[in-house]
Write a structure and sequence with these properties.
The protein is 0% helix and 52% strand. By secondary structure, the chain is mainly beta. It has a single domain, classed as Sandwich (Lipoxygenase-1). The strands form 2 sheets. It has a 6-stranded antiparallel sheet with strand order 3-2-5-11-8-9, with no helix packed on it. The radius of gyration is 15 Å and the shape is globular. The chain starts with a strand and ends in a 14-residue tail after the last strand.
Length: 132
């Protein structure tokens, strides 16, 4: 089932000492938005709207550059159609580019890489679609 979906991922840049500030992009289906962080501690709300297949479609936040001397990113929140996701946010995967190792339940992206979260019908419980 394809559902019109708006995803917001809130990320904060961390550990900036002697590192360049990163650029990141958020993907949902074939839609993408990007942001370049400009100051230490900055938070940014990445928002993308698309028709997502549920269950199984993934939200992907990734570093634009693969260079390792970049500040870290922390995912501090995810909203689905305006509603906070809650603890389901921890059912995610983070894969640093340099190792290719898939790390489970990680919200801290210490190295450039990709953070993924698969959408599930439970993520839409409090939205207008009324999934139970």
């Amino acid at each position: 089932m394809h559902i019109p979906t708006t995803i917001t991922v809130i990320a904060r840049v961390e550990d900036t000492e002697h590192k360049t500030l990163p650029a990141a992009r958020l993907w949902l289906s074939d839609q993408c938005t990007a942001h370049t962080f400009t100051r230490p501690g900055e938070e940014h709300r990445f928002t993308v709207s698309a028709r997502a297949e549920v269950p199984g479609h993934e939200v992907r936040l990734e570093f634009v550059d693969r260079g390792e001397a970049q500040a870290a990113l922390s995912v501090i929140g995810v909203n689905v159609n305006g509603s906070p996701m809650g603890t389901r946010i921890y059912q995610c995967e983070y894969t640093p580019y340099h190792s290719g190792e898939c790390l489970m339940a990680r919200l801290y992206m210490g190295w450039p890489g990709t953070w993924r979260l698969r959408l599930h019908p439970d993520d839409f419980r409090s939205t207008r679609f009324g999934f139970v």
